[in-house]
Design goal:
Helices cover 20% and strands 36% of the residues. Strands 6-5-4-3-7 form a five-stranded antiparallel β-sheet.
Length: 81
């Protein structure tokens, strides 16, 4: 699995468990796997995985990663995970 990081052209190959951003929706989630040519991405707050095309994934910014981590911690403390 590999795709180009938008912006600077550096190669970025997300791995299972990495935070990824779905470019078409702007949502950040965890890459759960690859099946039938589609990536499965689970929202950081938990929930159902969605199928996303590999070219729709981009590397999240540091700010997006921090925000996702806070959302995950909040969901966990509220008992949603």
């Amino acid at each position: 699995m590999s795709t180009a990081e938008k912006g600077n052209g550096a190669a970025w190959a997300p791995q299972r468990g990495d935070l990824v951003k779905v470019e078409s929706t702007g949502k950040v989630g965890t890459l759960m796997g690859l099946d039938w040519g589609m990536c499965q991405v689970r929202p950081v707050e938990g929930g159902v995985e969605v199928d996303v095309a590999l070219d729709d994934l981009v590397k999240p910014t540091d700010e997006e990663r921090l925000s996702a981590s806070v959302r995950h911690a909040n969901a966990r403390s509220w008992g949603h995970l």
